[in-house]
Amino acid sequence: MKLAEETIPSGEAQVIEDLVARLQAKITRDNAGGPMRRDAHPKMHGLVKAEFIVEPGLPPELRVGVFAEPRSYPAWIRFSNQDGSLNPDKGRDIRGMAIKLMGVPGDKLLDEERDAPTQDFILISTPVFVTRDAAEFDALLASLTGSGWAKLVFFLTHWRVTWNLLRSMVRFANPLQIRYFSTTPYLFGNTAVKYSAMPHVSVPDRIPDRPDDDYLRLAMRQQLTVGEARFDFAVQLQVDAQAMPIEDPGHEWSQALSPFRKVASIVIPAQAFDTEAQRELGENLSFTPWHALPAHRPLGGVNRARRVVYAAISKYRHACNQQPRREPQGWDG
């Protein structure tokens, strides 16, 4: 087995079709009579302006794609809860950080958006994906939308999924103070990488004793009223194809074997982000790991499923809401 090598199982295309149908039915049912929302990460804490600053003096093996030269990209970053329902923030959940760089030259992977000037990085607050592949995720989703007996049988027969899910569901005080991970791998030169965004935190916030239903948005607003937020953006190189598998994002890559290495800084300046216009923009933006340069091509079955699922759900959601789908050119449009 070679570094960055994919192995596509038989029947995967049918599994992905089933996922699209299942998720589309779910959001149709969950959003009856209201705006059509995302199937995951529908609750947004805030969409913020940021600068993504590539480090100068990177070694040759890290100068790939958007990291090839030291420069700064304007970016939108959307912070969210993973749960498909709009629940109070005090519940345990996976949190999301979706980064959209703008002003990125070069042809992109998606035919419909080949000329789009954007590059997305999709991160969540856990180092592992809950399932090993698209088929297992489809089975998980089927159990969660099924009977109580279906849920019990699935979780009793999928111990690692149960463990990954339990360890991922955490309470946090502030989305700007969480470490985020890609969980899935991406092409990077002659190998693959996983991504991580690591916050700079001097004095961490505490979860309020009596938290507001939207206290994570309020925590972001408080921090960005008085100052900035910063993250280090880092890559973890695949150095062992067996110990660091491409097709199983439910398996964590060892940081002892290959530590994360900083390639960029994210600076979120002080700002008033909690406006109606910015909330509307955050709802209408589409994020996918396939908004990418070929140098950063998503790898593995979960990412192959995302290519189809994310596009189908985005098109369906925007059509239902009568909103155009477009990639931003910059902060002003």
Automatic annotation (TrEMBL):
InterPro entries the record matches: Catalase_sf
Recorded superkingdom: Bacteria
Gene3D superfamilies according to UniProt: Catalase core domain
Free-text function comment from the UniProt entry: Decomposes hydrogen peroxide into water and oxygen; serves to protect cells from the toxic effects of hydrogen peroxide.
Name of the protein this chain belongs to: Catalase family protein
Source organism: Ideonella azotifigens
